[in-house]
Amino acid sequence: MQTTIEILTQNLLSPVRHGFFTRKGGASSGLFAGLNCGRGSSDQAEIVAINRARVAEAMGVAPGALVTVNQTHSADVVTVTEGDDPAQLASRPADAIVTNVPGRALAVLTADCQPILLADAQAGVIGAAHAGWKGALSGVIEATVGAMQDLGATRIRAVIGPTISQRVYEVGEDFMDEFLAEDPDWHRFFTGGPNGRPMFDLPSYGLMRLRDAGVEAEWIGHCTYSDPQRFFSYRRATHEGAADYGRLISAIVL
């Protein structure tokens, strides 16, 4: 069994400790083989807890200091303060977390959606956002940036972690129309696919919204769908007829 955790980082966020964790190094087996950190999966709760403890250790915090929320594909943001209990925040509906409190590892779970880690190292403010197409379209990126600015951030940098890439993200015409109704210029994020249906460029769309919000940003460049050895993918699991799928975790800490 693979025991070494693999963590992807990006210099843009240095010196803030952060990591986009792959599925390598976990205790799960079967469909979830590797580092499945999704409490909402049908994996054994005890095994998921072991995996999350390994992530906390890698981030240099206690397991109880790993902060996640109940993700709902919204634009809602939670600001973590000194007195907040991470165990209680876990049931809070939201899709982004920000803080200026050292020792709290903010984390989001994904399986094709964009995990976005953000930091203003000088101001001592960090954030983590779960931005699938629905959350990104609803404004979760801008809401996260705004919440960080409320804490004093002025020069925010962000990295989009492993996410589904355009070459495998086929969508429907109604999906594309929903974006074009917001801004016709967003047609540039769609191209024709091999089946005559639109292909959506989620990371480029995320980068556009980050940069329009005044954030220096980049994508780490890994596609979740295309690399089953390293990443969980909801869409790949669906295409394979799998009963469930694992969740990747991405975290950042002051």
Description:
By secondary structure, this protein is an alpha+beta fold. The protein has a single domain (7-165, 201-253), classed as CNF1/YfiH-like putative cysteine hydrolases, CATH 3.60.140.10. It is built from 7 helices and 13 strands. It has helices spanning 45-59, 86-89, 133-138, 140-150, 173-182, 202-212, 234-239, and strands spanning 7-8, 17-21, 66-67, 77-80, 96-99, 105-110, 114-120, 125-131, 157-160, 190-192, 198-200, 216-219, 248-253. Helix 2 (86-89) links the parallel strand 4 and strand 5 (96-99). The protein starts with 6 loop residues before the first strand and ends with a strand. The model has no long low-confidence stretch (mean pLDDT 96).
